[in-house]
Amino acid sequence: MKIRNCAGITNPSFLLVHPESLALHCHKFQLILSNKRRSGLFARFRHSASARTFASASVSKPDTVQLHRKHGSSSLYSRPSLVEMKNERIANRAKVYQFLQGLGIIPDELDGLELPVTVEVMRERVDFLRKLGLTIEDINNYPLVLGCSVKKNMIPVLDYLGRLGVRKSTFTEFLRRYPQVLHASVVVDLAPVVKYLQGLDIKPNYIPRVLERYPEVLGFKLEGTMSTSVAYLVGIGVARREIGGVLTRYPEILGMRVGRVIKPFVEYLEGLGIPRLAVARLIEKRPHILGFELQERVKPNVESLLEFEVRKETLPSIIAQYPEIIGIDLKPKLLGQQNLLWSLIGLSAEDFGSVVEKMPLVVSLSNSPMIKHVDFLKDCGFSLQQVREMVVGCPHVLALNLDIMKLSFDYFQTEMQRPLEDLVAFPAFFTYGLESTIKPRHKMVAKKGFKCSLSWLLNCSDEKFKERMRYDTIEMEEMETMPSFDMNSLMEPRGDESDSEYEEDSDDDEQV
Asked: In which domain of life is the source organism classified (predicted)?
């Protein structure tokens, strides 16, 4: 059987079939049918298979060739497998770990961190950190810093800090305290915090000093602890215009939790008898007192004062005069000063308590100046008993400028010509200015012909003294008592001047 004409076939795929090719397949089909050992079903299956083979060979072959060409161009089987890539990464990490261990760096905390694939890149990071002044110990304290790229992380952050005005000489300590800054984004993390600080009235030229003193602030959330601590301080009476100065001098406040730190501290001082507004004024002047540990330091110090014969009702005055007294290591100082004054002038424990009440700063005075002042009073002719009375009456005689005391005493002897007993009765004489107060008042009293005590002469305001100069005689009921600290003076309305200018806080333990 031969097919001469294919015009009757309408399937487009068969238009490519050659007549001889079709005749050949039909001939094979006849041979299969002639084989009596084959079943009819098998013959039909072979016919169907033959037709599919024929169509596949005729139509699909070009696509198959094209597919093989695409596979060949992608080089699929020339790439390493996932297992091989994983093993390579493990091997590279092992080399990096070996390099770090050779430097003394413990890489245990780096297991979950993406690290450079080569030792050379890791060496670059370590060398850069060491050039900044960080030691191997510093890196071991925060090994995650090794996950920071020199070009993408470290240099942009340090350049930004430098543009703000942070001194390069402080970079080492800055990074020791807050190495996490190297992970930060300048635009997303750092710049918004700086803008927020400026919004708290911290002057732009003070921002670098704030960051140098408290670099951890760069990691705080804007609407978290920082905003609540500021709002609380304003709420208790800290003047809004003083906030910038308070935070400039003690930026650690921005990291303090109100409920756990600031509020308990304020309420404890209130419980001792210091009015809340007075506490606010103390914070304005000495903001670092908020850093005193309440349980570990403040409360034990108050108990120590009571142990050394200080009366409970005088605690508010003591703290208001010298807030540092509740933040220093107080008990050894109390014991040391008590023993010194006992050895110098025989001061009793009760009298020592009185001295602390009148001049809390006595707990921080150096031994040498105190000895010199006692020797000076003795050289002036005062007996040991009189020196003791003068110290108890006005402890400031142990801390005043010795040269000025000498000038005042010379004037007392040569011009005023008063007996030493007058100074024993009013040792505060040494606390008044010679040129501004003592000389002019003495001349006016001498001109009037008055005979008065040193207390009546000095222990009053200029307005009150002018009023007294209009008297014909001195009334005994106007005799003034020894000057003392007035808590109300701490809560008087503030003037236009502000304490917000930046200044480095001196050591808490003031030495005179």
From this structure: Eukaryota
Scanning 200-275, the segments in alpha helix (DSSP H) are: 207-213, 225-236, 243-249, 263-272
Q: What is the Cα–Cα distance from 408 to 422, expressed in whole angstroms?
A: 14
- Tokens for 421? 């007993």
Q: Side chain identity at 258, as an amino acid letter?
A: V
Task: Report the candidate in 320, 309, 259, 268 with the shortest Cα–Cα distance to residue 485.
Answer: 320
* Total domains present in the chain: 2
User: Which residue in the block uniquely carries the two structure tokens 């240099």?
Assistant: 155
**Domain of residue 128, residue span:** 82-145
CA–CA dist 468, 11 (Å, integer): 133
Domain check: are 18 and 42 in the same one? yes
In a domain, 303, yes or no: no
Regarding pTM above 0.85, the answer is no
Split the chain (512 residues) into runs of 10 and give each run's mean pLDDT. Answer: 44 42 44 43 42 41 43 52 71 85 86 77 93 94 91 96 95 96 94 93 93 94 83 95 95 94 97 96 96 97 97 96 96 97 96 96 95 97 96 96 97 95 96 96 91 91 89 60 66 55 46 39
Whether residues 87 and 66 share a domain: the answer is no
